[in-house]
From TrEMBL:
Cellular compartment(s): Cell membrane
Residue ranges constituting the ABC transmembrane type-1 domain according to the UniProt record: 60-248
Protein name as it appears in the record: Spermidine/putrescine transport system permease protein
Keywords: Cell membrane, Membrane, Transmembrane, Transmembrane helix, Transport
Lineage, broadest ranks: Bacteria, Bacillati, Bacillota, Clostridia, Peptostreptococcales
Length: 257
């Protein structure tokens, strides 16, 4: 009984430590005062000022554009790569799976610096294109890892049956294989979008002047003093990411049920 109570207390304190600061941030985003130490009344003032700030709106546009494009392209490449890995010999599959896990296990700062070095070596001007390429690169492994479990669950004779009935390999993929692995593809796409939306470290190293994402914009705003607009922006980001993660978790549960 005591052990159970201690476990409950530990879990409660842990989640309070994690989420209480975020809860306070959301509460103070509605505070009329610029200072966090005093409550001056409820207001939507900072949300209005947030969307009147053109630099923040531009960063919001860049963030969602990059996230959507990166998720779409990474999903296509990752799905094709997952199918290729699934059909490889056991030794080749082990090798490419280890290669796939490396970017997932590497710290973001290592990925960011290595991509920056690559772009400089290729003499690419840092900006929207390099930022998009960086996001596609670190998203692909997550899509592969989301699609592969569905391929393993797939009946191996389905494609053979489709080919025997006269379908071309391309028709067999789009009409037989793809509908069966679609939950994994959607999960990979949502995961890629969420990771791209939330990324800071890789974006910081691979973006150029004039191209900001929300995470970089928030970082630059903190250098000039913490504005209540940051509270409002952070609150919106948190709610948006939580919503996407909820959809992602629902898709994952559906896959493994």
């Amino acid at each position: 009984m005591v052990k159970k109570a201690l476990k409950g207390t530990y879990i409660t304190l842990m989640y309070l430590f994690l989420y209480l600061p975020i809860f306070l941030l959301i509460v103070y985003s509605f505070n009329d005062s610029r200072y966090r130490g005093s409550w001056s009344g409820f207001t939507f003032r900072w949300y209005r000022e947030l969307f009147q700030d053109r630099t923040i709106v531009a960063a919001l546009y860049n963030t969602f554009t990059i996230a959507l494009l990166a998720a779409l392209i990474a999903t296509v490449i990752g799905t094709v790569s997952a199918v290729a890995i699934h059909n490889m010999s056991p030794k080749a599959k082990v090798f490419f799976m280890n290669v796939t896990y490396l970017p997932v296990l590497n710290p973001d700062i290592v990925i960011g610096i290595s991509l920056l070095a690559l772009f400089v070596w290729m003499q690419l001007k840092l900006g929207f294109i390099t930022l998009l390429l960086a996001h596609i690169t670190f998203n692909i492994p997550y899509v592969i890892l989301a699609v592969l479990p569905k391929l393993k669950q797939l009946n191996p004779h389905l494609e053979e049956a489709a080919l025997d009935l006269g379908a071309t390999p391309l028709q067999a993929f789009f009409k037989v294989i793809l509908p069966e692995i679609m939950p994994g593809v959607i999960t990979g796409a949502l995961l890629a979008f969420t990771l791209s939306l939330d990324d800071f470290m890789v974006s910081f190293f691979t973006t150029g002047s004039g191209i900001n994402t929300l995470s970089i914009k928030i970082y630059s705003m903190t250098k000039l003093g913490v504005s209540p607009k940051i509270n409002a922006l952070s609150a919106l980001l948190f709610i948006g990411v939580i919503g996407l993660l909820g959809v992602l978790q629902a898709r994952i549960r559906k896959i493994y049920d």
